[in-house]
Amino acid sequence: MGMCLPCLGGAADDVVVTPDPETRRQQLAEAAEKRQKETAYRGVKNPEAVERKRKKQEEIEKQAMTPSVSGGGGLKWQVG
User: Fold this and answer.
1) pLDDT, tens digit, for every residue of 12-26?
2) What are the residue ranges spanned by the domains of the chain?
């Protein structure tokens, strides 16, 4: 019985204080975002350039979807 007491005496110094639930939730959310970014850009040397190219491609696709008023750009019906 006397041999366990020295072990328990130093246990109070090793206690890790857990943060409140809101702080813990925030830390988990930040870690999840970091993991998603790492997996999204795995093997990419310049992620900013990839993001710029993706946005430019989306703009080009959006412009292609909107009809051009000045060019007439569609099929024309001929009746006759």
Assistant:
1) 566 777 889 999 999
2) 22-63
